[in-house]
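USER:
Make up one protein:

ASSISTANT:
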Amino acid sequence: MALTIRPISAEEHLAFVSRQRSVSFLQTPAWGRVKTEWRSESLGWFDGDRLVGAGLVLHRPVPKLKRYTLAYLPEGPAIDWSGALDEWTLQDWLGPLADHLKANGAFAVRIGPPVRTATWSAAQVKEGVASDDVRRLADLAPEHREPAGARVVSQLREAGWIPQSPEDGFGLGQPQYTYEIPLAGRSEDDVLKGMNQLWRRNIKRADKEGVEVSVSDGGGGDLEAFHELYVHTAERDHFTPRPLSYFRTMVDAMRSEDPERITLYLARHEGDLVAATILVRVGTHAWYSYGASSTEKRDVRGSNALQWAMMRDSIAAGCDVYDLRGITPTLSVDDPHVGLIQFKAGTGGQAVEYAGEWDLPLRPLLYKAFTLYMSRRG
């Protein structure tokens, strides 16, 4: 029987997510409430009356042409990308999606298949940074290639989808490269032993200095304290901070779906807030989402204490993955971004390449105009 697609309620969508081992938090109904500048809708794939897939679509209007939108499914949709349900091809899933969205005013669809294509170990990353002959992850043979990921990439190309993979792995959407720590079947001691000596020493230093870690739902002024420190971090590290209202919306929306979906972690030393982070969890996948740290008292290693606390809590929650989110694929010591991957590689784990984001033009002239507009804007 052919798959059909139609809008579903937030309740139906959330019920589907809760039955999966893991779905990206960017594909939960709550995320549509967080992204207030986009119009959102939940779509469901049906085999007869049975819901077998779901996706959160964020609609971005074309400048000066509000009728048409870019339909964006970040890190989604949540469908059978592995091909385990072999009665349907990838086109059986994505064809109805494109038809539905075009009929409802989309000029293009952008998806982010949540499938890995390759992984590199922490040891490989370290060796690559030390080598004069290696400048990018792609210069190293991966420790593991994912056949399912390669199959998805090949089928998307054949179906006319266009890859949106910037050179540094970051674009206007989600990063193609992440750093992840596998947790399945591992104890706290296993994870700690996988870290490099500096990370283990910093965790011990925080404990010796008396850094105290607490968790919060964001109430009692804790979210405001996090945001104040986050703004300080943004000024120091030269990035544009999100407003406090964004984090209030994020916490309220996610906690309304699941009280354990999002947690604020705070590290204090002698009463002073020295670091703060936000952890998000859906099913067996945990994400380090935002972090902040004070310039003073950096030597007490509050950030390391928080990372270790979040890892331990993720293990206790039965998570398969602790996700440190995006990295750039550079390994050149001359690149200012290399410090990011070096820092994350110190935790052990692995660098992961995903299939990246892909566009399917539905109205080619509008899509061409939109890409031109975005290139000039960038």
Observations:
- The chain has two domains: 4-112+357-377, 184-319.
- The chain has a mean pLDDT of 94.
